[in-house]
Write a structure and sequence with these properties.
This protein is an alpha+beta fold and 305 residues long. The chain contains 12 helices and 8 strands. It folds into 2 domains: 1-49, Ubiquitin-associated (UBA) domain (Helicase, Ruva Protein, domain 3, Orthogonal Bundle); 58-196 and 278-303, Tetrahydropterin Synthase, Chain A, CATH 3.30.479. The strands form 3 sheets. It has a 3-stranded antiparallel beta sheet with strand order 1-2-3. Strands 4-5-8 form a 3-stranded antiparallel beta sheet, with helices on one face. Strands 6-7 form a two-stranded antiparallel ribbon. A hairpin with a 4-residue loop joins β4 (152-159) and β5. It is flat and about 70 Å long. Residues 81-84 are annotated as: Involved in Mg(2+) ion dislocation from EF-Tu.
Length: 305
Amino acid sequence: MAVTAAMVKELREKTGAGMMDCKKTLMEANGDMDKAIDILREKGLAKAAKKSGRIAAEGLVDICMNENNTKAVVAEVNSETDFVAKNDEFKKFVKDVAITALNSDKANAEELLNEKYLDTDATVQETLNDKIAKIGENMSVRRFERIEMENGKVAGYIHGGGKIGVLVGLETSSDSEEILALGKDIAMQVAAMNPKYISRDDVDAAYIEHEKEILKQQALNEGKDANIVEKMIVGRLNKQLKEVCLLNQAFVKNPDLSVEQLIKETSNKLGTEIKVISIARFEVGDGLEKKEENFAEEVAKQINK
């Protein structure tokens, strides 16, 4: 498979490795992007890829909750430009989409498009079409996720004016306001650190085996003796799991505590068990590709509409 400049550029963005290293590795991997990332990591030329793709599309994320914080939705709506994302009408539409999803039983965005939009006779799709015609820019209802707790609370956090939205489901028998405060702190943690899993118990075996192989090759490529490689793998894997598992992460507001210890402190204080059951984190445009467009052209485009 021929290696193109675009492929080299994508690999550089995903790994931070040098251009020539990316080109050589892509040729070695016969154009397989995932394999190329693994090779670069094995050679110590790249950090573990934390993104599945470029985060570049515009739009907004918003959250909506019911009155007693037992059910919530985080939703993402995309636009072509940041101008539209800052438009009050667009902001209201995103909020209304989240409200519609909260009150619906639809499972995904595709199904939600056929749902009635709030208390109108129009569907979400028809309303979206009207907005596109009025604003003059393509938009899409990309996704939403709903968390509902029968025994507990849902807390949420919006970061960057709607660039990141997080929901956290906490299982507990307490109705204390401190539960929601704890939930917001955990949601802020998820927004900042983007954990892959809640706890080590959630880490799938395939992920563990894949990372062990990467770490083994790293150690061997560093010239380490084979008899100490296994011990090194255990140490490095444990360090990595602390970074990707929410409960093991250092709490961003107090690094002396882990998130697990933070939860335990609140649990002891309130005299009730508290458990993180689910998390949902949306970052605008995660995994989507945005067309290149300079600022002057974007301004001119808006003026001419």
